[in-house]
Design goal:
By secondary structure, the chain is mainly β. Helix content is about 10%, strand content about 30%. The protein has 2 helices and 10 strands. The structure holds zinc ion (ZN). The site of zinc ion (ZN) has 6 residues, from strand 4.
């Protein structure tokens, strides 16, 4: 059966792009069939903010909730994919999640963040490595909007979808890598 789910997460690999100052990604086969082991096994090391990942409120707000405290329903359900251009005019329905396509490398403006934070969607995603400045993060995270960064939306048309996005349950962490899937609605 052909799945209608579309993977919108960035593949994790050694040497992949990351935020300046974050550690490099390593992926190491530490046990290997053919090198005396009965099995293959891999370890990896990366920033919680590399590739497709979710920012917890704790990322920019001291003492706020960490990624393991996120209600999973924040990132599962109806979502609208919109173009960055024109997002200021967006009128959100209650509970509607939003993904921003063609986001600038430095994210969204403070005024757009304030507009979106006022509507308080369960989550806001973007296909850039960052949602924006510290002000942008604080406005959204402070309003209870969980942030998804590093999405792959180049093959996704604007429109209405269903999303499943699940960050790893890392205790006390300010973010975590996530697998994200979309399915067209209607
Ligand atoms: Zn992040």
């Amino acid at each position: 059966m052909i799945s209608d789910w579309i993977d919108i997460s960035t593949p994790i690999a050694a040497g992949m792009q990351h935020w300046p100052g974050d550690p490099d990604v390593t992926v190491t086969r530490f046990a290997e069939i053919g090198r005396g082991h009965d099995y293959n096994a891999t370890s990896f090391s990366m920033s919680a903010h590399t590739g497709t990942h979710v920012d917890a409120p704790l990322h920019f707000i001291a003492g706020a909730r960490s990624i393991d405290e996120m209600p999973v329903t924040q990132l599962i359900g109806a979502v609208r994919v919109v173009l960055a251009a024109g997002a200021e005019k967006l009128q959100l329905e209650r509970g509607e999640r939003v993904l921003i396509k063609n986001g600038a490398a430095d994210g969204i403006s403070s005024s757009l963040a304030a507009h979106l934070a006022a509507a308080c969607p369960p989550c806001l995603g973007i296909d850039a490595l960052t949602m924006g400045s510290a002000d942008v993060h604080q406005a959204l995270l402070g309003a209870g909007v969980w942030i998804i960064e590093g999405l792959r939306l180049e093959h996704i048309e604007p429109g209405r979808y269903e999303m499943v996005c699940l960050p790893l349950r890392i205790v006390g962490a300010d973010g975590a890598p996530a697998r994200a899937l979309l399915r067209r609605v209607g």
